[in-house]
Backbone:
């Protein structure tokens, strides 16, 4: 577990004075220069409409993060670089890279994949965070927090707190809107990015391991792991009376050995990604690779939830909210497979026009 990797200073010293890096500081003017340069270059290459369409949204989001988002994360020692947030960025980069490689065989250019990856990533993060806030609302709207403090806690995503299934509606909507704008069949696009999404999920689960969330129950297996005091499983075991609370002298003990379910999930997603890539040449209809993913991943998630103890049973059932959503996705997968069986056969590698 390594929640915080290091801190980024928010100011640079210039003799007796200091210059802010974030907010309306140095990075804002760097962003402004790079944004204007990218807009001018894209306008000359592809025209103003394309420059606005492809750059306006990401530039607006990144600018808002620099001006308002990053300063809000300052904890007094600087802006903490969380292990969880770092792995999320690595997940986005790795997933986009794999999708670019797969997109080449489909005639989908790298610029389109990068634009799609950014939109899907941001939409997915928003959806996953909203789901987490709803499920664990007591952490964000407790009596000791005012509305501003609750807002800061909600946007502090690098510290952890996402529900993967919450990303599905928002990410799917973003992908569908993108496919409509770029005139790319949504099933073809889904097959292109499905393995990349799983690679991203695999790296994201490593971020969960660094953060200590999504933990499993006690076990005596050789690879069982202990987490330090202050980690989510430590608080859980103290509340259950499994380990003693901090002593008068502040002494603490680590958790009992538990399942490293985050690593199980990371390995599971990586294996499913390789399986999806291997299945690609055998697919006979656009959408079959994606259908395979939404069939197998919910099954493995249901099984993994059996050894995770961080989510209680939901809606009066013995199943967690993630297991219930997995069942719902499996039902959708069955319907999707049936719909695909009614479509004409075609090789996945059918090249579409340049986008």
Residues:
């Amino acid at each position: 577990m390594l929640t915080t990797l290091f801190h980024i200073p928010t100011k640079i010293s210039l003799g007796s004075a200091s210059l802010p890096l974030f907010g309306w500081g140095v990075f804002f003017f760097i962003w402004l220069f790079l944004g204007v340069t990218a807009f001018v270059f894209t306008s000359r290459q592809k025209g103003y409409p394309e420059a606005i369409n492809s750059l306006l949204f990401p530039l607006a989001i990144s600018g808002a993060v620099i001006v308002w988002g990053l300063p809000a994360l300052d904890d007094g020692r600087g802006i903490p670089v969380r292990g969880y947030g770092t792995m999320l960025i690595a997940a986005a980069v790795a997933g986009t890279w794999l999708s670019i490689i797969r997109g080449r065989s489909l005639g989908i250019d790298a610029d389109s994949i990068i634009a799609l990856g950014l939109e899907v990533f941001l939409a997915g993060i928003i959806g996953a965070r909203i789901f987490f806030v709803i499920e664990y609302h007591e952490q964000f709207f407790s009596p000791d927090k005012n509305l501003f403090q609750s807002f800061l806690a909600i946007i502090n995503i690098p510290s952890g707190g996402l529900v993967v299934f919450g990303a599905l509606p928002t990410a799917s909507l973003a992908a569908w809107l993108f496919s409509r704008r770029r005139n790319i069949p949504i099933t073809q696009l889904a097959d292109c990015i499905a393995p990349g999404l799983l690679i991203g999920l695999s790296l994201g689960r490593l971020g969960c391991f660094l953060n200590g969330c999504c933990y499993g129950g006690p076990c005596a297996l050789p690879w069982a792991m202990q987490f330090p005091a202050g980690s989510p499983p430590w608080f859980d075991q103290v509340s259950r009376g499994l380990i003693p609370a901090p002593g008068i002298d502040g002494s603490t003990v680590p958790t009992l050995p538990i399942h490293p379910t985050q690593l199980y999930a990371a390995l599971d997603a990586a294996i499913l990604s390789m399986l999806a890539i291997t299945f690609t040449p055998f697919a006979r209809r656009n959408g079959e690779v994606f259908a395979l993913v939404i069939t197998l991943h919910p099954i493995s998630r249901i099984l993994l939830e059996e050894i995770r103890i961080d989510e209680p049973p939901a809606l009066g059932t013995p199943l967690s909210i993630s297991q219930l959503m997995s069942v719902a996705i499996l039902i959708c997968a069955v319907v999707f497979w049936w719909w695909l069986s009614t479509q004409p056969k075609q090789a996945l590698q059918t090249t579409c026009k340049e986008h």
